[in-house]
Amino acid sequence: MGFLDIRNVTKSYGQVEVLHRVDIAIEEGEFLVLVGPSGCGKSTLLNMIAGLEGISGGEIAIKGRVVNGVHPSKRNIAMVFQSYALYPNMTVGQNMTFGLEMHGVPKPERERALADVAKLLQIDHLLDRKPGQLSGGQRQRVAMGRALVRNPDVFLFDEPLSNLDAKLRVDMRTEIKKLHQKLKTTIVYVTHDQIEALTLSTRIAVMNKGHVQQLGTPKDIYDTPANLFVATFMGSPAMNIIPARVVARDGVPYASVTDAEGAPRLLRFSQTNLAAWDGRDILLGIRPEAITDPEGADRKSQNIQTLANRVTVTEPAGSDTFVTMTLGGRDAIARMRADASVAAGQAYDFAVNMEKAVAFDPATEMRILP
Amino acid sequence: MAAVIQDTAVSTGRVTRVLIYLLLLLFALFYLLPLYVMGINSVKPLAEITGGNMMALPEVWTLDPWRSAWSTAQIGVEPTGLKPYFLNSILMVVPAVAISTIVGALNGYVLTKWRFRGDTWVFGLMLFSCFIPFQIVLIPMAVVLGKLGLAGSVPGLVLVHVVYGIGFTTLYFRNYYAAFPTELVRAAQIDGAGFFQIFWRILLPVSGPIAVVSVIWQFTNIWNDFLFGASFGGTSQPMTVALNNLVQSSTGVKEYNVHFAGAILAALPTLIVYIVAGRYFVRGLMAGSVKG
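ok -> structure tokens follow
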């Protein structure tokens, strides 16, 4: 039993079921990120934990206490909203202590809690201002401060960074991570941004169409995606999905992919059990950073395969150069060192790290397990 | 060269501006003319009105018509002046405006932030009440007031105006609160605030503009209402009915100066409300339509 248990939870509106048997156990101090495209049910799940939406089936328990039907204010949770939801008529200080006031905490105690949190978040000089007089980043801090003041069991974050500009978003991301490391609080965090999910979380639940597609550590999710959806949703640029055929030579499996000219190229698999798929079609998943120039290839890898192919487009992005080529009739992207000498139209020998390659069954779209 | 061009541009602007101001001034004078006629004729002796020009300034200035209209003029059979009826109107209008505005705010709050099955239907039906002509409900209303024992009394009139006003006030507040972010209400719920605490601490403090709209609208309508006052006023008739009785009296000399003074007295409260709160009125009307 975890600290926050979501057991077989479903949600339906009338006849339409939008969440299907979600089952997640969250340990104390964990940072769980719910990530998925819009409409996948991640915010609905968060609202159900908060008590803002009813639970149609299953149960949610916080610290072993089932909270189905318990009022949001009695669950000992705090929530940070996407729009921050600061009360416009109250000062920052009043905003942050409103929850304590409503729970009947005496004034001196409120003041003490406010002072501690304001110092922690470095907003002590803003306490007498109204939310309308604050910048986006300051509002964000106040919204977090309001949650922290109450010292809840579980923090719920609903896309808290999506209203900030790109630069501030990265700063606040680091800030949230620092805060979590310092306070060791239990956090459930909803976002549609896969980078946020990968950088912040201790575990990720990737959701789509009301199902949890995969639950695991950021490394699990990134390196061994359970299915095609997770593979393409997580990571930027997305994982290359290349139609390929398995060819076994003396029991060693190779992926046969067609290059830009339509000629077959062979890449040896590290995953030996794929020999059983001899002669069958699969979808080969390779992350862009696993296709590089030979000098940039991972030196610790046991299985670097050379792939000769023609370059379609190069896109220098400062730190890396992205190279597009045609593989298996589709565009595939390689991530090269910034000063790799490649030019469009040129024939080039790419280094493919096949240790990082994954194979998917085209019929079920599930990963073929090793 | 440049200076010359600039000069012409400025002088053209000035001519247009003067024309615009002249036109506006003309319209303003036109609209103020009736008020002028009422004003100066209310401070003239009657002889000057019947014998001379309505537009001329008085030769003898006097406040007697005002005194007469306020405290001694013949209203119906009693020589009481308009004073007691003015008090009746105040006693009717203040609670009626206050109650209908508060109920409208609560309705708007529930219809937008505590939505329930069929809430749009409820709102639609309330909106429908804005379109019911007064005359249709006279007889049923009289029956209801009689059964409640409120016929011919100020509380009866208050009830009638509250019932009629709720449709409008609900419409105002619902549209205003619809633009108010629901996340704030949810945040307050998590913070542990109850139904009335959220209303009182979160919504009401930002409802100023729409409250002004509701108060002006309700005040003007209720103060100026004649039909309900004449029908259900009984012994406690409002100002409008008394003014009618003063002006329409068919016996004796028609004291036009007193009538003018009485009419101004009757119009004064709404005028004051507009002057004091008028600029918030437009602001409030705009508030719901434009996203802040």
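The interface with chain B takes residues 50-52, 71-74, 77-79, 81-83, 85-89, 98-99, 102-103, 146, 150 of chain A (CB under 8 Å).
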